[in-house]
Every structure is written in C-alpha cells, then in structure tokens.
Write a structure and sequence with these properties.
mainly alpha, 140 residues, 7 helices, Four Helix Bundle (Hemerythrin (Met), subunit A), 0% strand
Length: 140
C-alpha cells in the first residue's frame, strides 16, 4: 500500500473542506445570489467526495475484497474491511448521489441541499479522513 498517495489525497481533502468553510455563506439567500460561491462550494464538495472514493479504491486495491460496482458501494466495502463504521458509510454513499447530480445535472442542484451539506455534513469528510488515518496506524 502506498500510504504517501493516500496522505496526499487526505491533504487535498483537507484543502477542499477548508475552501468550503472559507466561502460558505450564512444563509440560502446569499448562496442563491452568488454564482462564484455556488461554483466554489459545488466544485469543492464534488472534489471532496471524489477524493474519498479514490482513497477507498486505493485501499481496496491491495485486498481480496471485490471491486465495488458503484462509487457508493466503495464505502460499504470499506465498512466490511473495518475502515469506517456503517453510519459513516451510509452518509458517504448519500454524498455520492450529490456528486453525481453536481457533475451530470448541475442545473438541477438544490442550493438548500448544498448549504446543508456545507454547514452540517463537512464533518462526515473529516470523520472519513480520521478513520483512514486510524486504519493506516493500525496497519503500520
């Protein structure tokens, strides 16, 4: 396992989280009226989700576990491996749904959901990073 690759991805994840926090508006009206903030939040949320999936795929590459059939199922397998808990796996799978909408159907984004993720669910990504780090420490 190349933990340096994972560490670099964790650093990128941290940057995306910080960027979201820096630009997160106080309310939905501010978000709806600021196209730059919409782009910054959406891009960095999508990036954070993709980084978590990439980390998961990297962790799975050196195992006997089957390749995930979907991005979301990556988190189910990480749960089976003992990397993350089931409640976090469920929340991370939901984030993949948002990522898919943001990437493939940007016009249909519900800005209230973006604000909710940005204010109430960034800790999911932080918990994921902590779980991966703890897993690495157990394997060392």
């Amino acid at each position: 396992m190349d933990w340096q690759v994972i560490d670099r991805k964790l650093e990128s994840l941290g940057r995306s989280i910080r960027r979201i926090r820096e630009r997160c508006p106080r309310n939905i009206d501010e978000l709806v009226s600021d196209f730059d903030t919409q782009d910054i939040l959406t891009l960095n949320l999508s990036r954070a989700i993709q980084i978590c999936v990439d980390i998961g795929m990297h962790l799975l590459a050196d195992t006997e576990y089957p390749s995930p059939e979907t991005m979301g199922s990556t988190f189910d397998i990480l749960c089976q491996m003992g990397v993350i808990r089931s409640d976090l796996a469920t929340r991370m799978k939901k984030s993949v749904g948002f990522r898919n909408l943001a990437v493939h159907n940007y016009e249909a984004i519900n800005w209230s959901i973006v604000l909710a993720i940005s204010t109430e669910h960034l800790q999911d990504f932080e918990q994921f990073a902590k779980a991966v780090t703890a897993f690495r420490d157990r394997k060392a």
